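Notes from hallway chat w/ T.B., transcribed later so I don't forget. T.B. wanted the structure written out for a chain they're using in a teaching module, and asked if we could keep both sequence and structure tokens in one place. Agreed to drop them here.
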Amino acid sequence: MAHANATAVAGHLVATGELLDEAPQLALAHARAARASASRLACVREAVGVAAYHAGEYAEASRELRAYRRLSGRSDYLAVLADCERAAGRPDAALRLLAEAPRTHPGHSEWVEQHIVEAGARRDLGEVGGAILVLRDALAAIRKGAGAGVDADDLIRLRYAYADCLQAAGRTQEALLEFAEIADSDDSAMTDAAERAAELSVPGADEAEPAPPRTQP
């Protein structure tokens, strides 16, 4: 690759990373520009895949992350790929992907993502009880010490998904307590747990089933 081209590609990748959270569509545009010049680089296909996922372009995200895996020989992003299957209306395919995935150590971010996506897929299939079991077992493994060192934000997201499933199952008081505890530990307000707890404190507020949350790469 010519030096000038390499510099341009690097600039697009930097911009992709900087814009990913605040302006995912613009981040995706930068990633696509990098791909136009360097489609055979694994890191470029990875950037396009991640940006596409953040922008809600799930079919493109799946294609690009699969290309990244072929080019790099790596096996990461399985949880994201499974979530893309969910977005395409194929929860069974999502579960098959996760069943084939090697489980990383409990508490690792990819491990957390796999459980959240599996629970979401089971909810898509109407298996709310199964989703609760998936998340309950994951939390139990962490509390027993198997997930020592789990990232605080990952734990909050796992607990939030669990509380969301409890509410969907009509277990209102358990969901209320879980949301309230999450709100107490969510110092950065990354979730709406406080609002969810307040809503569940109102009689009849739990009648509508919330949609299962999506993961984040």
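Follow-up for T.B.: The chain is about 70% helix and 0% strand. Might be a good example for the class.
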